[in-house]
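sanity check this chain:
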Amino acid sequence: VIQKICFQTLKKFVEAWGSDGKLEGFVDYSYKEILPVCFIAPIQIFDMTDAQAFLAIGEIAGVMKAMINCRGNEFLLYLQNQYLPSIHVQPDVTQELLVKLQESDIKSLKPYLKALFMKLRTPQI
């Protein structure tokens, strides 16, 4: 429950301050701190067999959708060119994620993100 509430709060921050000029430095903060937590928590911390984790993943989807709504293509390019390569996500997986983020609603993103996070837990050979 706490994880879900934390991501709900992060989403509200992004919605409130994620556009240019709303809060100086917040865009950089959202890319350097909020976005990584959206991947680190489910990959390294969540118990994916727990139903609460699935609810939190829905909130993570909401955070990412809010970042797209506020930053648009800039956010997608950051994901593609900087963040996802830094955590060793393969280019084909990156492209698939970018399409899903743009075309899917939060409800349909949840199972996709859960599967993606599970895949990213497994070391790539």
